[in-house]
Amino acid sequence: MSTACPACGSGDARSFYQCADVPVHSCLLVDDERTALDFPRGDLDLMFCTACGFVYNRVFDPAHNAYSSDYEETQGFSARFQDFIADLAGQWVDRYDLVGKTVVEIGCGKGEFLTEMVRAGAAHGIGVDPGVHPERIADDVVGRTTWIPGFFPRDYPELTADAVICRHTLEHIAPVADWMRTVRAAIGDRTDTVVLFELPDVRRVLEEGAFWDVYYEHCSYFSTGSLARLFRRTGFEVLNQWTAYDDQYLIVEARPSTTPAPGTPEAVEGDLDAVGRAADRFAAAHAAMMDRWRERLRHVADGGGRSVIWGSGSKGVAFLAALGADSALVDAAVDINPFKHGRYMAGSGHRIVAPKELQELRPDLVIAMNSAYLDEIGRDLATMDVATTLEAV
Ligand SMILES: [Zn+2]
């Protein structure tokens, strides 16, 4: 296994966090408890590159990847999420003059975002993802979209479009620089194509000790600085960078460049030392955060109460897997996505239940796996007349 940084090629990376036997997938649907408990596992050895600030899992093995139509990652059943993506799609269509244009999305998931780009005015959307379900696409955009259940570049090699979008995908790819160069090559000489990426911000994860945001599927982690450096290094000019969704997500807007290392770094990219310090403190922050949640769950159980988590996606899988045997202190995982009900959480084996089951379970503590959904969950609980304590990780 190479020790060179996959983003910049430097050999100056240091290991700052290790964890063995974590489930290799977070969002694959699992039909029974036994399969969930026996789910394949892999190890984490997170590295911080002192040259470019990139954070990556040194022992990630892509052979574990099993992305398929059984991959159920969507947050699209949330009204808050729908509002967010509709707003972002509208901004991008306006800012980059994409009315009547063609847009490609690499890693389009269930297609919600591309759908919003078309609704905002794009003439044609092409979505590529092994997990896309064309039969679930909204009727109003069916005639203006093309769905390719596969991978870029293998199943869709050429990016002929006015915009190339890639949201929450780059963090699942290990050879990030090679992959970005493949994107750049696939755009070719169409240098007016705009390139729009969104992915989690590692700085927040490290600083908060957010152990539920570190998991096997995410082999690559970026901050504002390391993302901009990667883009420049692989042939893109960075136009704009910002954080969104309660500062959880990094957004970068770029264009292909013909100049090596184009553009001057913005002040916000000068985060190398801060991210390095946060990486060095992560193991301690992680342990403290684990202790805090273990104590919280034990306190509820000691009082004869029940706890559930709300959100059965990657954060939920990581949260329960990290708790180990103490995950038994959590009674169930709630999800609003009906495709997940009756399935099981990879690793911990928790059953995924519909919100209405809380009327029977009567939990004393509901832990939201993403603070962005606190208001929405609070309203759902009130509507169902479930009186409980609601907290977010
Ligand atoms: Zn590096």
UniProtKB/TrEMBL annotation:
Name this polypeptide is given: SAM-dependent methyltransferase
Keywords of the record: Methyltransferase, Transferase
Top-rank taxon, per record: Bacteria
InterPro entries, per database record: MeTrfase_14, SAM-dependent_MTases_sf
Residue ranges annotated for the C-methyltransferase domain, each copy included: 281-383
ATP-binding recorded as keyword: no
GO molecular function: methyltransferase activity
CDD domains associated with the record: AdoMet_MTases (cd02440)
Any GO BP annotation: methylation
Pfam family, one: Methyltransf_23
Database matches in PANTHER family: TRANS-ACONITATE 2-METHYLTRANSFERASE-RELATED
Organism, as annotated: Jiangella anatolica
Lineage: Bacteria, Bacillati, Actinomycetota, Actinomycetes, Jiangellales
